[in-house]
Design goal:
Length: about 150
């Protein structure tokens, strides 16, 4: 038997862009223009379970947030604000299997945009230009030529 496991931490999350195609085969290249639309799609189809707060006063309602449950208790069961808050706060989340789940395989959801966490790039100059000695620099290739990336030192 052969199995392949790839650690999530070792994978690079794709970066969302306009007209992002869902990479999961069963979605047949469906396109998304907004990040939050895609993330809603991801939660709806590519997460195995979801957690909900079931209403204790009726059987057919469950909400995603305590806020929503509170409003439901007030509007549909005529709870007072105080009773609704106490009931909602005391409700335990229940895990539901997603019936529409389509496995994303090895795909992971995209991130909204590229983030630079380690260093802040303050400027790019041609190699040979005068660089202040106290600046931290890195030689990188950009568009086929070598440039120095000047970084902020903290
Ligand atoms: Zn999809
Ligand atoms: Zn209810």
């Amino acid at each position: 038997m052969e199995s392949q496991q790839v650690p999530i931490a070792g994978r690079v999350r794709p970066i969302f862009h306009k007209d992002y195609h869902c990479p999961i085969v069963s979605c047949d290249g469906r396109k998304f223009s907004k990040f939050h639309q895609y993330m809603r799609h991801w939660r709806k189809f590519h997460t195995r379970t979801s957690s909900v707060l079931p209403c204790t006063a009726c059987v057919d309602y469950s909400s995603k947030t305590r806020m929503e449950l509170r409003e439901h208790l007030c509007h549909h069961h005529h709870f007072t604000m105080f009773a609704a808050k106490r009931t909602a706060d005391g409700t335990t989340r229940r895990t539901l299997m997603n019936p529409r789940y389509m496995s994303p395989g090895l795909h992971i959801p995209p991130i909204k945009e590229e983030v630079y966490i380690t260093e802040e790039i303050v400027g790019v100059v041609e190699v040979g230009d005068n660089i202040p000695r106290d600046m931290d620099t890195d030689m990188v290739e950009q568009d086929g030529k070598l440039v120095l990336v000047v970084k902020n030192q903290n």
